[in-house]
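name: query_chain
kind: protein
chains: 1
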Amino acid sequence: MTILVTGTIPKALKPGIDTFWGEYSEDDMVAAQLVAMETSDEAFVENVLISPFGLLETKNEGSSVAYDNMTQGYSSRYNQRTKALGFQVSWEARKFNKYLDVVAKGNKFLARSAKETKEIDVAQLFNRGFTAGFTFGDGKTLFATDHPTRSGTFSNKLATPADLSEAALEDLSIQIRTATDDRGLSIGLRPELVAVHPNQMFEIQRILYSDLRVDTANNDLNALKKSNMFPKGFVVNEHFTSTDAFFIKTNAPEGAKMITAVQGEFSNDGDFNTADHKYKFMTSYAIGIDDPRGYYASEGV
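structure:
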């Protein structure tokens, strides 16, 4: 077992040290802009699709009213997974380090590790979104051209992959605006946010916020900006692995979720014989998706 002793950070025993660095600023979680954050005290959660009614039918005089039926669709199961990490400090390291509070510093590092772990786990939803084998409730990958419904299928990705561009965003926006529910009824789906890799962070600003169209000599207005097509703008995620793929979050009420059972617990305990202390952080959460309509994407080329 790894243990932090006086020799681990020997400079902390000597005078003349001004700063021990290694901490970085903590921005708000990018993950919280991409998925809904919910809580539960259950070991697992299941969310079930209820397929609604279709359109009203014409009733002729003297004829019977047509009756429709709601049906149960697929379910999405969220199984809690425990994530934990700790460190151990000797009695001597706690007593004789002159300038470094190893416990306080260690707890800050644990908190940062927890945040980073959650960011990566959420980003993996998107990183694996086109990868066969990583399927969800409807048996399809997150981004597919053939998500099954009672009325047929629907697509939440470009049929022909394209890199980030004004045209690609317009094509996906049209797909989103024409989206239908499980019975083929329009649902008023709208784009909200574009999520990109850092390599695309300057290009997405030019596309969304230029007054005129980008990469063209035509003096046309920028329709994406004029229509406020993406009211929540864009977010840059350093944990996306593809430098070409980009993603659009929609206003679908049941998209991807992080369901947390244990937000985070710090605890410690001492060993009577050695006087060493152990410190640990534990959390438990599940990540998944209910409705693929919550996200549209292109994997790039």
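note: Residues 64 and 145 are 39 Å apart (CA to CA).
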